[in-house]
């Protein structure tokens, strides 16, 4: 049952007793900020759907647990450490608003709250509540008022948590999962079932490759070992087929067997080539290859020819004017950067109740298909078109294609109207005799005949983009797009480079939490916008008040003790605001 906390501050709560002390510390502004605004940012009723309405023991207030998850992400600590800090760290106690002697939650309570959010597909809940609060403040003037938003999009790599194995051990792991599922379905101990079937080597906990007593430099021995493993896998798949015939279709047991057998079959298809002489390792890497049994959603990815990784990508949308992260998504590691780009734009409009007027992105979003998708959705996309090369010969971009006139002019000034093909395969053809007599032929045509210039399906969109990126205005867009790079750096600093959990649903939760912290810390620096005015005002008040109490024998600190306001808080924020968008905060 939903437990709630009172908005009233208790007389002996840590923030009442130690708030000033913590605010005076170095690097404690975020704790003080949370202490001041936690009631506005997270409310218990926002998480009510996770709890039974009329039955059971009262829960730890979810607003407190949400705050603890924010602090955990901010400090990048484990669940155990988060629990300990909530119990023994004054900064946490002040931010959480709990009593000095309180132990506000057990480690398992924090874990269960996180699991509930993921299970109920409410991974975005904490991010949404924090963004709602920050935007409310923004509309009050602290971070910009506009309801028209310009977004910048980009992705960054997330290294998966699952263990990545080679094909031998990957097959061994997937066989072990099927053995466990079959043993459970037969109601037997896994070890006993595996021993009876002669499959013990897959479930005894040791590396399969380590158990294979072969000379790994001998190709034939390697192949024989692989063929034995593949034979075991084939036999298991047949056992699964027989077992499923005994089960009700769609039952939990049936689904589990189907899922495990599906993984095993997938590894066989992606990594094994069947030849008359027997199974051999497939050459090359299959598309969409599964590479870990502990996290089958991880994929091989690359952010550049040199930078390869295994895991996921975070798709991030940032408001270029306020630097707020407005939406995130998690993609498989092998997904193109532009995947779900429109989704995060739509998500931004929903979250912020705004209109996205422009989307800025890098060349990874500049392909014709992405431009077409944005154009079809009625959205404006500014992304660089990639450079085209042609092995030292004139690239296509040296030719002037006029789609309205149906003509193409080459660098030598020759013009052709010979447009051939249809649909995706349209091309301009220059006559062989024209090119044959051309003084530039050696720089243009490598084979026989005349030069051909293909017409892209989205040629008109690409032409417009190329023309725009040649103007000085484009430079300003490129500079503004850097905002998303800075925010990605901040998210990486908050730990998203390495997945804390397995599976895209939990990784998405991690990215949402990092985005929430990035926005809240940015909002905390936003206080600095008003600080000079406030400091002046309160200094005047404090001066008057100080004069009237000259008889006081001493002051506890250099900061004026104005009820309800700690000037040092604002002074400290001034320092933070000077840091601007520096990822360090
Ligand atoms: S080779 Fe043909 S297409 Fe190329 S520049 Fe000469 S005339 Fe033009």
Cα-to-Cα separation, first versus last residue: 37 Å
Q: Which structural class matches the secondary elements?
A: alpha+beta
Oligomeric state as shown: single chain
The shape is flat
Q: How many domains is the backbone divided into?
A: 5
Helix content: 40-55%
Average pLDDT for all residues: 86
**Sheet bearing the most strands, described?**
6 strands, mixed
Kindly provide the name of the CATH class of the largest domain.
Answer: Alpha Beta
> What's the CATH topology label of the largest domain?
Nucleotidyltransferase, domain 5
Which small-molecule species are bound to the chains here? iron/sulfur cluster
- How many β-strand runs? 16
The portion of residues forming beta strands comes to 5-15%
CATH-derived architecture of the largest domain: 2-Layer Sandwich
Radius of gyration: 31 Å
Low-confidence stretches: 527-585
Q: Which features characterize this protein?
A:
single chain, 585 residues, alpha+beta, Nucleotidyltransferase, domain 5, 5 domains, 6-stranded mixed sheet, flat, binds iron/sulfur cluster
Task: Note the topology.
Elements: H1 14-23, H2 29-41, H3 62-75, H4 79-88, H5 90-96, H6 107-119, H7 125-139, E1 148-159, H8 167-186, H9 190-196, H10 208-211, H11 219-245, H12 252-271, E2 272-275, E3 278-281, E4 299-302, E5 308-319, E6 325-332, H13 341-352, E7 355-361, H14 368-376, E8 381-383, E9 400-402, E10 407-409, E11 415-416, E12 419-420, E13 427-429, H15 432-436, E14 452-454, H16 459-469, H17 473-493, H18 504-526, H19 531-548, E15 561-562, E16 565-566, H20 567-578
Parallel strand pairs: 1-7, 7-8
Antiparallel strand pairs: 1-5, 2-3, 4-5, 5-6, 9-10, 10-11, 12-13, 13-14, 15-16
Helix pairs in contact: 1-2, 1-5, 2-5, 3-4, 3-6, 3-18, 4-5, 4-6, 7-18, 8-11, 8-12, 11-12, 19-20
